[in-house]
Each structure stands twice: as C-alpha cells, then as structure tokens.
Amino acid sequence: MASGGRIHQLIKQARATFSRAANEATFRQEFEKLKAAMASVTFEDFNLSPSVLGKVWDYSPYVKDAPASCMDVYECTEFSVSIFMMKPNKYMPLHDHPEMHGTMKVLLGSMVVTAYSKPSSKAQGLLRCPLVPKIQLSPSSEPCCLYPSQANIHEIHTGDEPVAFLDILSPPYNPSQGRDCTYYAIKSADKTAKDEESSRTLGPPSSNDEGSGSEQLCPRHYSSATVLLNQYTVFDLPSVKLWQFKM
User: How far is CA 87 from CA 33, 47, 56, 58, in A?
Assistant: First the structure.
C-alpha cells in the first residue's frame, strides 16, 4: 500500500474506533484494528529521516533548548494524530491524559516509557499510583497503549539518538472541557519484598521541589502556552512534506 494510503487508512480506522456512534461492544475490536493499522506505518510514510530529525531545532523561531517538538497530522473533535520528535538523552516529564485512550508508535530511534495507572481516589491531594512495567520501544515494537485509568500517567526517556513517534489521543486535550495536561511530581516510592518499586505517590506542588533534579519534582498545571514555551515547540518544517488530511 502506498504511503498516503496507509496514513489515510490509519485515520479512517481511528474515526471508526473513536466515533460517537461506536459502542462498548465494538470498541475493543476497532481498537485492535487501529493498533494493527498503526503498526504498519513507518517513518517513510511521513518522509522523515534521521537527517531531518537532526535539523528540527535549527529553524528560527523554534526553541533550540526545547527537548521535544510536535507536528500535527490530523485533528477533529474525537481524536488527534501527531508526530512528536525528541532530542537524544532527553525526557518528556510525567504527565496525564484525562479520560483519554491513546496509542504511540515509534517511527525512528528508541525510547523508554514509564507509566502509572490512576487510582480511583486520592488522599490529601496525593495519588498513590501503581507502577506499570517499563516499556522499551523501537520501530519494530508494537504500539504502546494508554487508557483512561490504566497506564494513563507516563514519562518518556530517549537514548543516544533522536526519536520520532506517532501519537493518537482520543478525545484530544481540551482545557475548556476539563482535559488539560497535568504534570506530576514523584513524592515517594513504595517497595515490594524484593526491593522493587511497586507504586509511587504523586503529590501537589511544593516550592522546595522546584528544579531539584531528583525525584522530588513538583507537579504543575501548565497552560497550553506555557507548555509550548518550556517543554515543546510546535512547528512545520519546510523540508518535510507532512501529510495533512481533511476528511
């Protein structure tokens, strides 16, 4: 199948999966089809290459110090499709996806995802979150999924090479509808009998946590503008032919 055909098929399947007309009985089947469609997509479908990733931050006025950049591929009220690009040896801070389903597929490079499941309640502003086993992702890996409660809070670390990954979220972030991105701090780690971390406690901001460089990092509610200034730069490279779909 041609590159454009694979991407069109992916977006059509996302629409079938996340359509308001979908019901619980068919959602799981459609979600599995979406994962299969996503697994077939490669960096070549988007005309990406390692050389392009190395030049992402050379274009003014993009923020050279930003660890990650994002290109929008498609968005509607039901889902969004984006490509994130990250520099080597950087990380995307611990953040959530309120009431969302999501799936990621690495196109170039490799990264490690550390995720936590959301508890049903919180005490004194703290979340005691079960730790999900770390996942190492590369282009040969199956898509990595998150759900409204399971593996919903995660952070991403890159290795010695730039990384590009495809990201689908449903529904998209929308602060006006209560779906803003919240960044979290790790307050403590619980240990099992084998001295392995089984859960962590995520808590409210503390002035003592700011910029400590340790696990005592404060969670923050960022407005979209602040996130773009401090964490990401959104761009459209003139050297990249990016598929933009209107369906």
Answer: 31, 18, 9, 12
| 163-170 vs 144-146, strand pairing mode | unpaired
Alpha-carbon span 168 to 150, nearest angstrom? 16
Contact by Cβ (8 Å): 186, 200: yes
d(CA 182, CA 137): 24
Asked if 239 and 52 count as a contact pair (C-beta separation under 8 A), the reply is yes
CB 69 within 8 A of CB 85: yes
172 pLDDT higher than 80: yes
Contact 104, 166 (CB under 8 A): yes
Alpha helix stretches (DSSP H) within the chain:
3-18, 24-39, 50-53, 224-230
Q: Given a cut of 60, is residue 231 above it in pLDDT?
A: no
DSSP β-bridge partners for residue 72? 82
Tell me if 25 sits within 8 A of 8, measured CB to CB: no
pLDDT digits (tens, 9 = 90+) for 211-225: 322 232 233 333 332
| Closest residue by Cα to residue 32 from 14, 55, 12 | 14
pLDDT band at 244 (very low <50, low <70, confident <90, very high): very low
Identify the helix (H) or strand (E) that includes residue 81.
strand 80-86
Q: Which residue has the higher pLDDT, 67 or 55?
A: 67
Q: Which of 141, 136, 138, 116 shows the shortest CA–CA distance to 126? A: 116
DSSP per-residue string spanning 169-199: EESPPBGGGTB--EE-EEEEEEE-TTS-EEE
Residue 229 near residue 195, CB atoms below 8 Å:
no
